[in-house]
Amino acid sequence: MLLLLPADPLDPRRVDEHFRAEGIAAREAGCLVGLVDHDALAAGRPDEAIVRLPEGDDDVVYRGWMLRSEDYRQLEERLAARGRHLRTSATAYRTAHELPGWFAALAPVTPESLWTHGPDLDELEDRCRALGPGPAVLRDYTKSLKHHWDEAAYIPDVADIPVARRVAGRFVELRGEDLVGGLVVRRFERFVSAEARTWWVDGECRLITAHPDTPEMMPPPPDLTDVAPRVAALGLPFVTVDMVLREDGAWRVVELGDGQVSDRPSSTAPEALVAVLRRPGGVVQGGGA
């Protein structure tokens, strides 16, 4: 495996500090480590993006900052031109990274959701009416603004169209050029546990950790009975699925994401993540540091 990590913006010869421990763990496990300039990719300069690409392994896994699907495809093309291939194709990345790609497969185990095809508030009104009365959470295809809960995330009742438009307008304003796709309204459900982040390789759950926002709050192991066949059916090589316990005792999917751009909680050792990426068998609980 070749682990492709972001270069440090201040010293492009080194791995970005946030991912440096994973780079060390990968090298100690006998993996190759390459470097990519994330800023060049995000700025539309893909020809400048590949900083270091060691000769050898063709199984390339990116671990880094979130990329737009279009930028990831540019990375895929530049690597292919040099005879290297990402384990996760650009098509698979988009499926995992953007909610419309995975929602249908997980619909029975995740909150009801409807979305627009852009930041159009009139179209959002139609989706609110279709969802029906009640509270909802707003996001775009890849991200919510839960740290701006009252002003740009939570809609107390989608039937109150002026309030829904106000929340959505603020969301669009705050996301700015970072907004991806359209606006998503998700039925609000009341949760009673910390989130668990489950890590899946080739359709199998290989690691269960805390969520990076609450690294010291490890919930009980989630029940994957209903989730596992649905994740496997997506056929994605490396994803995370964040799960949480609803007040009625049901485990619910908060989000599925591409594992390459999913943050590792500080309470999980980098060696644990590298180990499952190398595809040995068995499920690791916690992967404590």
UniProtKB/TrEMBL annotation:
Pfam families: R2K_3. InterPro entries: R2K_3 (IPR025643). Residues 131-277 form the ATP-grasp domain. This is ATP-grasp domain-containing protein. It comes from Cellulomonas oligotrophica.
